[in-house]
Amino acid sequence: MPLIIVESPTKSKTIKAFLDKTYEVVSSFGHIRDLPKSKLGIDVEHNFEPQYEIPAKAKKNVSALKKATAKEKEILLATDEDREGEAIAYHITQVLNPSKDTTFKRIAFHEITPEAINEALLHPRDIDLKLVDAQKARRVLDRLVGYKLSPLLWKKILRGLSAGRVQSVALRLIVERELEREKFKSQEYWTIEADFAIQGNLVRAMLDAIDGKKLEKLAIADENEARAIKQGALASLYHIEQVEQKEWLKNPEAPFITSTLQQTAATRLGFSASFTMSVAQKLYETGKITYMRTDSTIMAQSAIAQAAAYIQHTIGSPYSRPFQWSAKVKLAQEAHEAIRPTNFGATPESLSATLDARQTKLYRLIWQRALASQMTPARFEKTRIVINSQSDTPRYTFVANGSRLLFDGFTKIYPVKIEDRLLPDIQKSDPATLKELFPEQHFTQPSARYSEATLIKALKDYGIGRPSTYASIIEVIKKRNYVEKDENKKFFPTLVGRKVHELLAAHFPDIVDIDFTARMEEDLDEIASGKKDWIKVVREFYEPFSQQLAKKQEEIVKTDLSEKTDRLCPECGAAVVKKLGRFGPFYSCSRYPDCKWAEQVKQTIGIKCPDCKEGDVITRKTKRGKLFYGCSRYPQCKFASWKKPAS
């Protein structure tokens, strides 16, 4: 009986339901071989050969796989079709060590449906060793950076820190954005709006130009300028100079790829990148959507035809526009298909009984976006009214813009934020009477901090990471306590994160260099396509890196993270110092380690405890680093909340 091995028990169960009893389907439960945690595990003297081992948690699964495959003549490896999946399949062949009569074949599919599975079974192939080498190179590079550079951070900054090849660039983006915000100097500027009476209608318009010169953002610098303009404008008479009306189309967006799904799920659903991928994995493994790690916007012709049929029969023919999106994605890795439902007829409502609430939300988002990509644009009528003062000097020009929805198109399925501002029917010859002016003061704002969505977009735009790594990059810098989130769920660097970035930027510029890291990603892509040798790529990185590391061991001065305080140790009476730990600042006895007294720094938020009314609300962290709010009088008062209390 042919045996199929997949990496997930859920996937195994789904595939088993599609196949007849001539096939047996089992799961490897993920990777069954990996680098050891206790040592480097890379033989740098002999072509960087990885020293793989079977992790303790995988040994039981390996025994079960060996037992299941002991007498099999044909083993089909059906792990995910990307570098990670190819590596899992390869390691299975190395660990199982079957008899000479046993053959391993690789089958791959982008969706778990009966049609896709049966088609894959008709076209088995060999394991793609180029993809395996690309995965191996990434793993080796990341291990060399992490296990070689982290001890230096322990020695020079703080024990327990770690550095990552790609995560360090993400940290750089966050730190530099924060430094930019701190250096930012806000500038005052003013805008002026006006209400005009035109044929019995009141029309709000914005001052757009003076004497034919368009006003830039900072053109009106202060209140005195705004007041002078207001006086001059109120003294003028006005007429309608121009009325423009034209049709405007808003096109649908492409179906989701990994990065856009993570971004949109963050902004629309409030999902983190890692949670989005976890939910999407379940939807994929249960056959609801296509593979969710992809950078291709292409949809199969059969899916396009299916979407067209659904739209025509359910929504109406005027809404249907079958369309193949371009596959030209910068540095595309595994260009499969876009993320889409495996069956457009399976509406979110029809699946809600079999999915939990969060799975339903994400499925609805994917279903709507994929279906909308095959629909007609929304059509609007844009109106622009130009109102000029009749005096020659100065001549004030006001502009009113409006829009009216003519045809909803794809927005019928995939709602988007559109300002529908109606303007009255106005002719060029109509008189206009200025009724009131509204000067308004503004101040320029610094660049916004990165959210998960905007950080993923930046990483993708810079060519950092790939579909399978965006979520893990973010999770790592969060887990290491290099960054935290503010009340708006935007990232800012912790003091530890800043110190790590400062050291890396000063002494290992390549590690945090955006272009260097992007080129490394390109090298990995070229290994996957067979254009480069993985050993050569690793050697070209490691040799200068190891030389720099040896030099910096003595050159870098240890960072002093302690501050003197006026407190005395309650246990021995010695001076207390404020130190920085992995999880934030804390107080410690200056006689440590002879005296081990320590206390967490209580960071108040200016709000009294809502329970006892005596203590202050402070921010605290769980053992896993998750922020929560508690009372400073704990354990006398046990108030605790995940949400910030009202002031």
The best one-word shape is globular
Radius of gyration: 31 Å
The tally of strands reads 23
Q: Uncertain regions: pLDDT < 50 for 5+ in a row?
A: 330-335
Q: What separation lies between the terminal Cα atoms?
A: 68 Å
Description:
It is a single chain. The protein is an alpha+beta fold. α6 packs across α15. The longest helix is centred in the first third of the chain and has 28 residues. It starts with a strand and ends in a 6-residue tail after the last strand. About 1% of the residues have low confidence.
Layout of SSEs?
Layout: E1 3-6, H1 9-18, E2 24-27, E3 42-43, E4 49-50, H2 56-69, E5 74-77, H3 83-96, E6 103-106, H4 114-122, H5 129-156, H6 167-183, E7 188-198, E8 201-210, E9 213-214, H7 223-234, E10 238-250, H8 258-269, H9 273-285, H10 301-315, H11 348-351, H12 357-372, E11 378-389, E12 396-407, E13 431-443, H13 452-462, H14 470-479, E14 483-485, E15 491-493, H15 495-507, H16 509-512, H17 514-528, H18 534-555, E16 563-568, E17 575-581, E18 584-589, E19 598-600, E20 603-608, E21 616-621, E22 627-631, E23 640-641
Helix pairs in contact: 3-5, 5-17, 5-18, 6-14, 6-15, 8-9, 8-13, 9-12
What are the salient characteristics of this protein?
6-stranded antiparallel barrel; 22% strand; 647 residues; globular; single chain; alpha+beta; 4-stranded parallel sheet
